[in-house]
Amino acid sequence: MDLYDEIELFDCPQCHGPGLIQEENGWCLYVECLDCGCHTAELPFKNEEERKTVAKQAASLWNVVRSLTRMGLINTLP
Q1: Closest CA to 65 of 45, 28, 42, 39
Q2: What is the SS3 assignment for 33?
Q3: In sequence order, what are the residues at sequence separation of 6 or more whose Cβ sits closer than 8 angstroms to the Cβ of residue 2?
Q4: What is the average per-residue pLDDT within 29-51?
Q5: Closest by Cα among 32, 23, 19 to 51
Q6: 25 phi and psi angles, rounded to 5 deg
């Protein structure tokens, strides 16, 4: 089973589309909405162990923003 299949991602905080963990050439990860392109910051990693940790951190960032948006504590729309 792929590492990314084990990580829960909430829907996009901006448009409610699906999020996906993206990897850039083996040096960083981020979560991006497949519908609107909204994304987290790029989180770098240097090895496989860091890759796992960073994937979980990227998902956590994405999910926290979604939770705060749902509670009305932040507004992601311009």
Answers
A1: 39
A2: strand
A3: none
A4: 94
A5: 23
A6: 50, 35
